[in-house]
């Protein structure tokens, strides 16, 4: 049987699955689950087109990986067939451990387990099922493979992950100003001393990439309305967990119920052999089905929040340059109690948060530019333009969101 | 409060909500529900980008409506503000009555109620809530408004519904050959004797539109793999309903359970005041959450089918020019029993069907061309090209799909 | 020196020049001349964006060639490095012999020499300068290389030439309905018995390709206004040549003057060693500079026609299904004489012509489909859709164009 | 006769000509001439797709103007029909005075006349021919019309001119990172105290616009290879003029010859009634036809430079942060004389220049942001991001270009 396959992609036209191993990975239930997890979680409350999944993103990142590796080969770098395939496998699987509405879920239901850790657990499980065919991919993913640039293409400030997600998120949201010109960026990649570098003539493209990334953060990932919806979903899950812990019966799919009733650690994935399967049973549908099931729940906090989220009656949200002072919060709390919300429950309807936008993390993980004279420079030093240096600063904003004009159900 | 709003759309750039009424309609829970119903149902098993919703489609169709009405105004046809708004409202709401995976659902859970009927029930309910502000829109939707072209723009072979869905489906699937050039089509529209017509110089555009539509049918809507997945979901719901009727307990969201346990008629929507609310509680998430919940159900037929669909182990499917003969089916049935499937259960794993592609339904609803000399001709007569006439033929295909290499769970 | 190069292309993103030979060809004055010859001649009188050159088209066709060859390699067909390069060179050079406004020019100034013949003369001249490095490319171009599919990719009904020009012309005119989905078409190519074939699952794509091509003919290549402008330019050159032959002095660039004063045959290119250089000196600028220079020429026919074309006062044009009868022409001629045009000069202002659109030339050069059962079928037989057969008919139209409301200069 | 017209545009889809006046302007020989003047002059030496004309740009800017005016109307600003038309006319005509290869030509042949002055001369001439129908448009163009925002939409740092040219240049070069999201920008425009302002929520869009503009400068308008080609064309015209002044016969179209032999001032356009017609006779074809005619001229400087430019053998070019020192130049000059170039002629083959990129000219012409609280702020003050302030600095670069490995003709 011929396992080669071509998949339509509105972003790149076509994506080729170019080996049996890659085909088997895509075909595996662990990967198929990603079809049911949206890349941008709740972002469609703002951008109704932003419904693309982690499945499509992972395929897209694999596509860019193969483009980039071909560019490196054309520039004379030797890359073996098994390295080529392993790098594609590593990027294909890099998001395997994401749950639905990842950041929300991690902050409530899986507080002690980072999604990267679950990704690794799943990759290792796959590797066992596949008799070690993922050994090399796992080394690249973890960064233990000696040729560092493979890891950097999987995970760094210039990796195929963010190239695809910026590209794809810009495309599906319709925020075309976020377009990064991935084609050109990839043509500018090179390798020097086993490190991923950018040719000097790619300087402008990198600058544009960093600007576009910063714009996408403010315009999409940290959009006020999205933050508000995320805060609401967090409160919903928080309340559901508390009710569940206090013995109240709650509608939930079996797998989702398991996570709602427990507080698992990473070690639990070793101890309970079937926990990984339960995790693999989770996706966006569990969350939405639960929110819908709970909208008529007797608990007025839970049912009110669920009804609001479903009907897109979102919390009002304001941004501040410094942490909001207590007087402001007290005022909002008294508005809430005036609406009939019990004092001890105002925190379900009033959320503080902070958010940061760090366009270029120079120290952590520099982007290296290979100058025409052969020197390697950090991008912020290679550019004679003050804007790049400006991007190395972290921009932090504080926000408060709360239920204006709420009327409790029940 | 300013209710004007602009919504990002990867297809058209931006969509404007241009009046308070339209804003209130979009904001209503009936319309917000469409955010959770994918336009193309299961089509993402073939085209992973095809995740756009009926919400976005309805907004897009409203956008095209406003473009088309402006063109008619520029050509000298008087259209009042209230007609303009009503036509936008009518197209905005035209798909309100769709359930999740509409055709699948209608064939099992709502066998006696067409989605168009529910649309009208919902529009009338909205109209009551809005004190008659939808009177005109409902007349246009039903076709009772004297100026027929408004109805034809909402529902005909050249309506804004199909212009948007062809455009949008082509965009999100990545099947760019299906692009119809909606911009140009719309510029070619005109009105003659209160009928919607096309200018003669738009002949080529219409031909292209009909060809593109036909291509989209074969390439997308009737794609083999999609038909197979739909057949599987139908069998799953069928089995679930039977189990439910025979008293077996089944996981389901409350609203979904109500439809699973009953067989409602259109009259029931009058009798049970809350049935419409239950219907409005249904969306794609119920179906997927149920399929996931059922994949470990004790019934091996149900759990096997659910596991297969979730992991994309789809039925094999073959097309035939005539109905498949009994010998073929008998052979497939014996393959199934050889796999351990009980004789009386083979029909869950073997589905026959037929499908038709009718590119241009000349008799039912002709597309009229206004020739330069003023005459109105049917497009098939206006064109000197034999291909248009060829498109008036119905192409019918038969298919059989079955579970190859199935192994029953449990 | 590194001769690898990447060229920006709005249509495909980037085009790579992937070998020294290809670089040297692109760099050669014969190829650089194509920068100054528009692909669509006068089409910008209708589509102002259609200014792309034969230079860009040739690069685009080379790009598609490399894409297609990679697809064939992935399907297991062995293609050597020198075959790969030669096929790219052959398609790169396939239009070298085009003069400015090719069909117009050929009909007046180079009546006895087809542009394909000059292409071959230039390829052979290049080959001599390059010590035989083009031997293989020339065999592929001429069709003498034993593996026929290379020639078919350069010149057939499914060649890279038309894939690029349809793609590119659709893009630059803005006639997006003409988009052919070249990506998918190319993925469907295969080779069987050294013939280029299409996989059965590409059937719909081919049908769409043929429809799109037919649409582009009517909408662009045979657009009434373009035919009218071409007729005017033909009359201008005809008049200029006659004046020149009768000894009248005419402004012209030196190279253009040489062709205006002579009537060369293909043999002349052998006899006059410098004729090829003169030909290589010709481009669109000569024609426009002359038309501008002649708009104040004492000859009223010449100056009137030139002024009209420059200011886009074009002939009126009508299409007919059969040759226009003499009464009609007589009537138009009398209108012209009534405007002050001498009887013997009416033919400069009244042009008859005919034009044909043959979407699929089945007999001449069939498109072969490789069915799943291995059989090779002609596309018109493989398709069960009557429209393809319809496309094998030649559609012929007749036209008359004439100067309505002309007022002679001088 | 219906003068309404729709023109295809790959950038915006369609452009409507929406009034008789606008139709007559587009139809006028002054405007039709712009069909033959490329927007980006020689830029196709780098970006072969960049062949779009000032004709198409002017139409595109008119299209954006109508979009923007409609946005202002929807926001409640009253704009009369004649203001609407006048603003469209003003932007349509704003580039009328450009000659071919404008900056090159102005630096040699029309040293004393800015293209803006000629635009005004032509607008006034048109106004006379049209009986004052352009009075209002001319006021808007000149900035004397009391409602300042009309002038600002025609000419300011946020005018429709640069929105279209950035959009269009990005599109046709294929430098997609330069995309500015004109649609969104335009939706963010507003008017406050008769000044053009941007809504606060458009802040990110403006930042992106300024970054994109800066990128387009470095990547396109000031691309090294383009500067080199421009330097060569300047030297060619310089030499041609000197030869012409010294009595040498030179091939040239009549109109071009007139400008080559004279050094006109703005006043000459008043004195010589026919000078404007001669100017209107100039376009890109004159320059290219001359360069081609001169490539065999007896003067070795002229013929060498022309041959080099035609065959794309361009000067080598280097950038410097400070003016290049004399030692460097002396070294290059001695290389040139070693190649056989006479000492007094080295300056034809060695060009110094400087170039600046000023992304945001805050002082000259601020972009005003209307904050939610109603205050008007300069964009650099409204943004809390240091990058905007960085863009107010002028970046200046120096360059030297020279003929490496030149061999003189003749």
UniProtKB/TrEMBL annotation, chains A, B, C, D:
Signal peptide: none
Domain HD/PDEase: 50-175
Molecular function terms from GO: dGTPase activity
Protein name, as recorded: HD/PDEase domain-containing protein
Coiled coil: none
PANTHER family membership: DEOXYNUCLEOSIDE TRIPHOSPHATE TRIPHOSPHOHYDROLASE, DEOXYNUCLEOSIDE TRIPHOSPHATE TRIPHOSPHOHYDROLASE SAMHD1
Gene Ontology biological process terms, A to Z: dGTP catabolic process
InterPro entries assigned to the protein according to its UniProt record, in alphabetical order: dGTPase-like, HD/PDEase_dom, HD_assoc_2, HD_domain
Origin organism lineage: Bacteria, Pseudomonadati, Bacteroidota, Cytophagia, Cytophagales
């Amino acid at each position: 049987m011929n396992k080669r396959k071509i998949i339509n992609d509105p972003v790149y036209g076509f994506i080729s699955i170019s080996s049996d191993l890659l085909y088997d990975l895509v075909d595996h239930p662990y990967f198929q689950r990603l079809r049911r997890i949206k890349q941008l979680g709740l972002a469609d409350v703002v951008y109704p087109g932003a419904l693309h999944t982690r499945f499509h993103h992972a395929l897209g990142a694999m596509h860019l990986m193969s483009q980039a590796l071909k560019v490196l080969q054309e520039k004379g770098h030797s890359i073996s067939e098994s390295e080529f395939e392993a790098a594609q496998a590593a990027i294909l699987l890099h998001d395997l451990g994401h749950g639905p509405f990842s950041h929300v879920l991690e902050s409530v239901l899986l507080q002690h387990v980072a999604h990267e850790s679950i990704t690794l657990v799943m990759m290792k499980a796959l590797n066992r099922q596949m008799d070690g065919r993922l050994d090399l991919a796992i080394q690249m993913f973890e960064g233990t493979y000696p040729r560092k640039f493979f890891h950097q293409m999987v995970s760094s400030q210039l990796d195929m992950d963010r190239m695809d997600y910026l590209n794809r998120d810009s495309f599906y949201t319709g925020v075309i100003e976020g377009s990064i010109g991935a084609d050109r960026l990839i043509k500018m990649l090179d390798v020097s001393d086993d490190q991923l570098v950018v040719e000097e003539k790619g300087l402008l493209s990198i600058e544009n990439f960093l600007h576009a990334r910063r714009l996408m953060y403010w315009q999409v990932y940290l959009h006020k309305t999205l933050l508000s919806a995320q805060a609401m979903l967090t409160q919903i899950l928080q309340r559901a967990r508390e009710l569940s812990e206090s013995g109240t019966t709650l509608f939930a799919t079996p797998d989702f119920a398991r996570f709602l009733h427990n507080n698992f650690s990473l070690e639990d994935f070793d101890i309970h052999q079937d926990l990984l399967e339960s995790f693999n049973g989770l996706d966006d549908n569990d969350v939405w089905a639960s929110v819908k099931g709970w909208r008529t729940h007797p608990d007025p906090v839970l049912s009110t929040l669920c009804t609001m989220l479903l009907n897109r009656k979102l919390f009002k949200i304001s941004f501040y340059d410094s942490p909001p002072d207590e007087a402001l919060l007290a005022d909002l709390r008294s508005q809430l109690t005036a609406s009939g919300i019990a004092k001890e429950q105002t925190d379900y309807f009033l959320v503080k948060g902070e958010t940061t936008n760090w366009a270029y993390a120079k120290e952590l993980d520099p982007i290296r530019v290979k100058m025409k004279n052969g020197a390697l420079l950090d991008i912020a030093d290679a550019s004679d333009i003050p804007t790049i240096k400006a991007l190395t600063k972290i921009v932090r904003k504080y926000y408060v969101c709360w239920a204006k004009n709420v009327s409790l159900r029940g």
